[in-house]
Design goal:
By secondary structure, the chain is mostly helical. 71% of the residues lie in helices and 0% in strands. Keywords: Amino-acid transport, Membrane, Transmembrane, Transmembrane helix, Transport.
Length: 449
């Protein structure tokens, strides 16, 4: 094992980090969280995901510009600290780590739920444990093997989403055999396009933000990406177009094909339900398998992101140096193992809470993604004034208007979510943030930061 930070290898290319961002964002939030979002907003969930996609676009543009201006940065903290100071950078680092460890925990439970589709006799916790061991093993291999694995997993689920879109449009628009074209009456026939009013739309935004969270993992790959000043903007552009397409169009198809009030409360993902409608033998099993691979792919990205945050913290002396040690394959083994401990903690929680574990964790994760995006946006807003001498090969075209629009939208969503989300989830999340702040104050007091 070695501790030299220069031993992290720049082996990831544009195709790797593009697929990693997609792998992080197209996971349980899309395939499982879709049921919750539709139940909250009805057909207007399409508007919710469109708003979220536009906000994501503005955030990621700012992240790309800051990454190009600071080519020596390794993670978010390096991008933010020189602009906003130590506390925002410290807070961002740790809530980002918290987001991913909770996310992979939640997704291990969701993966177990989909495995139960075939193995109903096995309890959630045993299946979650099996998935956790698999994801840990993949991450302990070399970065190149991990990146290739993530690339192909992400490619599989993207291909199937494209097939899903084509099949869905066929069911909506074409009459064939015993099937009659469904059309678009389900968008308005069951209480209207906004069946739960504006409150339902705002409440669904928490699921939307959670679903899109993970795309910003591009900001964690900087130390292991070849030519990040060229690769990151390219990856941001291609990723955003695909993510918005892979969310908005599938949701449009789902709420058009299936009455929105029949989506929630069934064990299958809405995606599996649509494939069952096609009538192809075994289509539901095929889709269930793909959804499972998609969730494992998202867990893969999450474990990578959280372990790299721990690694850079250890390299800088902020946490014990053991987490900066690398294997012969240049992988931060102890950082990965520390992060996987959350997975096994999730297995224990699921032993008592079962499938409800996901719903409980999703609320806290939505809050965290909101705060991560806010900090990135505020840093971008101030970046040009803080470093006016730096020129950039990539600049946001309509700065600062797009960044201000993102900040205002995020604050509005935050206020709405506070009034519409379970008070227990809000209190637990704020308690975690308060604890992170206390650790910062303690470390500053003893000159450890």
């Amino acid at each position: 094992m070695e501790t030299d930070k220069r031993n992290l290898q720049r082996t990831m290319t544009s195709r790797h980090i593009t697929m990693m961002a997609l792998g992080g964002a197209i996971g349980a939030g899309l395939f499982k969280g879709s049921s919750s979002a539709i139940d909250m907003a009805g057909p207007s969930v399409i508007i919710a995901y469109l708003i979220g996609g536009i906000i994501l676009l503005f955030i990621m543009q700012g992240l790309a510009e800051m990454a190009v201006r600071n080519s020596g940065a390794r993670t978010f903290r390096d991008l933010v600290q020189s602009i906003l100071g130590k506390y925002p950078a410290y807070f961002l680092d740790w809530i980002y780590w918290k987001m991913w460890v909770l996310n992979i925990t939640a997704e291990s439970v969701v993966a177990a739920i989909f495995i139960q589709y075939w193995l109903p006799g096995y309890p959630i916790w045993i299946l979650a444990l099996a998935v956790s061991v698999l994801v840990t093993a993949i991450n302990l291999l070399s970065v190149k093997v991990f990146a290739e694995t993530e690339y192909w997993l992400a490619l599989i689920k993207i291909t199937v989403i494209i097939v899903f879109i084509m099949a869905g449009l066929l069911l909506l628009l074409v009459t064939f055999g015993d099937h009659t074209a469904v059309g678009f009456s389900n968008l308005t026939d069951h209480g209207g396009f906004f069946p739960n009013g504006s409150t339902g739309l705002i409440t669904a935004m928490l699921v939307v933000i959670y679903s899109y969270g993970g795309t910003e993992i591009i900001g964690v790959t900087l130390a292991e990406t070849k030519n990040p000043e060229k690769v990151v903007p390219k990856a941001v552009r291609s990723t955003l177009v695909r993510i918005i397409s892979f969310y908005i169009i599938p949701f449009f198809i789902i709420v058009s094909l299936i009455p929105w009030n029949e989506v929630n409360g069934v064990p299958e993902s809405p995606f599996v339900m649509v494939f069952q409608m096609i009538g192809i033998p075994g289509a539901d099993h095929i889709m269930n398998a793909v959804v499972l691979l998609a969730i494992i792919s998202s867990m893969n990205s999450g474990l990578y992101g959280s372990s790299r945050v721990l690694y850079t913290q250890a390299v800088d002396g902020r946490i014990p140096k053991i987490f900066s040690r690398l294997s012969k394959k240049k992988v931060p083994v102890y950082a990965i193992l520390m992060c996987t401990s959350a997975l096994y903690g999730g297995v224990l929680i699921s032993l008592f809470a079962g499938s409800k574990t996901f719903d409980f964790l999703m609320g806290s994760l939505g809050y965290t993604v909101l705060f991560i995006w806010l900090i990135i946006a505020i840093a971008h807003l101030k970046s040009r004034k803080k470093h006016p001498e730096k020129t950039s090969a990539y600049s946001v075209k309509w700065f600062p208007y797009t960044t201000w629009a993102a900040i205002i939208a995020l604050i509005t969503i935050l206020i709405g979510i506070i009034f519409t989300t379970s008070i227990i989830v809000t209190i637990i999340t704020l308690s975690i943030y308060f604890f992170i702040t206390l650790t910062y104050v303690w470390k500053r007091r003893f000159n450890k930061i």
